[in-house]
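ok, trying the design again with the full structure, not the truncated one.
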């Protein structure tokens, strides 16, 4: 699948712990393994800050409320969840805001690799996935969202986004349906 990459966004210990969906990680792991087997690059996008959070303004409602040391190199909660840990050949991109593109070199990495089609997964549907769909569409990427590869603390918000909002800018499918396109 030349030109396609699977984005695995914010699957970090401190974020996964907020989702109460026991089948989520195994389902996402199947998509990651299938992508690797098909030669589709897997790009992990993680939230990360320097010690002392100099990147965060007190005016930022989302990040200004983080506890000191959160999502810094010393924070165990900043690690990618061990059930989905990156492997050799995977790319890890660190972002500084909600969108995968904000404060990161993701666009450079993707364009440098000839990627034009993004398959999006992550936590939260109403956070990183929504912001990344919007920005990636504005950057002219072709988009697919794996509805069951995304999770949100609010199931109704997840339903509305994947059923009504994302289809305006992306193909929305399930992980199992996407896997059939890899064969």
């Amino acid at each position: 699948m030349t030109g396609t990459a699977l984005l695995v966004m914010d699957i970090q210990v401190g974020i996964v712990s907020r989702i109460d969906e026991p089948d989520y990680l195994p389902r996402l792991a199947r998509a990651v393994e299938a992508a690797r087997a098909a030669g589709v690059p897997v790009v992990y996008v993680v939230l990360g800050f320097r010690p002392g959070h100099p990147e965060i303004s007190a005016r930022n409602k989302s990040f200004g409320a983080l506890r000191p040391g959160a999502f810094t190199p010393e924070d165990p909660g900043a690690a990618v969840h061990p059930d989905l840990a990156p492997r050799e050949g995977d790319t890890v991109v660190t972002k500084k805001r909600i969108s995968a593109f904000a404060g990161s070199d993701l666009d450079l990495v993707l364009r440098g690799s000839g990627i034009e089609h993004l398959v999006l997964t992550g936590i939260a549907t109403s956070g990183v996935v929504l912001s990344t769909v919007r920005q990636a569409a504005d950057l002219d990427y072709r988009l697919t969202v794996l509805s069951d590869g995304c999770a949100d603390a609010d199931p109704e918000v997840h339903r509305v986004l994947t059923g009504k909002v994302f289809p305006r800018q992306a193909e929305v499918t399930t992980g199992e349906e996407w896997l059939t396109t890899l064969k």
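Keeping the full-length input from now on. Helices lie at 13-16, 24-37, 106-112, 125-138, 155-165, 175-181.
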